[in-house]
Fold this sequence. Notes:
Elements: E1 20-22, H1 28-42, H2 46-54, H3 60-67, H4 83-96, E2 99-103, H5 108-123, E3 127-131, H6 144-152, E4 157-161, H7 168-177, E5 180-184, E6 214-216, H8 232-270, H9 278-289, H10 296-304, H11 316-333, H12 337-344, H13 348-382, H14 384-387, E7 392-397, H15 404-415, E8 419-425, E9 428-434, H16 441-446, E10 454-457, E11 461-467, H17 471-484, E12 492-494, E13 497-498, H18 506-513, E14 527-534, E15 539-541, E16 545-552, E17 561-566, H19 570-576, E18 583-593, E19 600-610
Parallel strand pairs: 1-12, 2-3, 2-4, 4-5, 5-6, 7-8, 13-14, 17-19
Antiparallel strand pairs: 8-9, 9-11, 10-11, 14-16, 14-18, 15-16, 16-17, 18-19
Amino acid sequence: xxxxxxxxxxxxxxxxxxxxxxxxxxxxxxxxxxxxxxxxxxxxxxxxxxxxxxxxxxxxxxxxxxxxxxxxxxxxxxxxxxxxxxxxxxxxxxxxxxxxxxxxxxxxxxxxxxxxxxxxxxxxxxxxxxxxxxxxxxxxxxxxxxxxxxxxxxxxxxxxxxxxxxxxxxxxxxxxxxxxxxxxxxxxxxxxxxxxxxxxxxxxxxxxxxxxxxxxxxxxxxxxxxxxxxxxxxxxxxxxxxxxxxxxxxxxxxxxxxxxxxxxxxxxxxxxxxxxxxxxxxxxxxxxxxxxxxxxxxxxxxxxxxxxxxxxxxxxxxxxxxxxxxxxxxxxxxxxxxxxxxxxxxxxxxxxxxxxxxxxxxxxxxxxxxxxxxxxxxxxxxxxxxxxxxxxxxxxxxxxxxxxxxxxxxxxxxxxxxxxxxxxxxxxxxxxxxxxxxxxxxxxxxxxxxxxxxxxxxxxxxxxxxxxxxxxxxxxxxxxxxxxxxxxxxxxxxxxxxxxxxxxxxxxxxxxxxxxxxxxxxxxxxxxxxxxxxxxxxxxxxxxxxxxxxxxxxxxxxxxxxxxxxxxxxxxxxxxxxxxxxxxxxxxxxxxxxxxxxxxxxxxxxxxxxxxxxxxxxxxxxx
Length: 623
């Protein structure tokens, strides 16, 4: 059951807690009984079984697949609606020597999807051309002009990747041009926009689809594919898998498909799809393959991201924060087709040049982002009216359109409110927005739909354009809408279980690591420990961080005592007046410090609050 929001009359309440803590809402008796049965069947600790149960694992074989994915766990590609038709048409094009156009997108998901499908078709003897739209000149999706040029150049088969499920005009143009169109996409069909947020990850019961020879999308109404959360590259991979296995299933499974999973792991993390089901197979096996990169472009990019040590154990975080930004920088700052060339060229020197260009573009992206963020921070500090908005609308002249989404995310992280960041140029305004849990951003901008030249998105992220002179009216109407649809004042923090400090052991930490890789849908577990005593004055280091010594229980001699780190918490702890002897509750992640001198188990604090009086609610899960 969700914990109640805290109203804290202590000195800590001025800055802590940051969140409203929640715990699993399933009936505790049912959940605990099922987790205990899973623990008996697998030999796993009760806590790990409980976490697996919360992630949908119900029996020993599902636990094996979750903890130790194998290439044999890949789903049958032919269970995806339209696969047989798509494979047959591509095989015909390969046999007849027809050129094939793969039409992609400019982000990491779209560019790696091109690499996967292009490589597979060419391995089978096909002739492939590709097109990556320019973010600013072309925008998202297929354009009839590009299709017309391809048809004039002899192309008769077009395959979209990471786009196309709503490309109605482009599909009609392809039909007029005599092109066969295969759409591979993972975005929701048009009718799914009207689904409630809670149903946004399932297929719509009906809806309009573009006219195409075949549509591969696990979220289309007729598709019974078991994993509904594939990224665009994931759908392209399933098509590649079907094509390669049709030629030589044994070799495909033992040699080719595992090597493809390196690119697919990057895309899966970069596109922030849930890391459950088949996506977990992609990422787990892909991370293992990335320890031994062969492709010269990938190898050099890993080196530039300081991930290039042979045999280094990579994490999903390494891909999300160090590798994917360099790949995305091409589409944000320049030409995304460089990514496709980087991963397909056989010239080591050219691969090196392209990798270094992407690294340089990522640096330019960071500089551009920092400059605009500095201006935004100054405005928020000086403009009380702007700072008071419930949904921030921040616009500027000449800001780089490729970084607007990142900027919106940074503003939301800093302010805890939904935000739109808008770049004005030549009388047109282009914007990107990000939201907070509990505030449906697409519904908010739909209330102003008549102001936009175009808009789209979902509950948490939107993109749009409109004439610049309409921005003030957009701001006014959004503030009016938020008065009746306010965002939660205190965001929720989803915690997994209550874990007293005296239950923490090295063996438990090892078992918890078996749940990796962590990410969207399989977040690293956050635990709650109650009634801890601050056993020593806080120790501040590097001016920004803090270390607390926390002991279980209020007695002066209570044991055990754990080191608890708060990154960028120094100012918060100082303002709260937190000192030795305080009794607190803490939400934390478990860490194992491998330093030879002062290593060992420690806590990484996620949130902190004065201890609540009384006993634990009976609905909370005790470990």
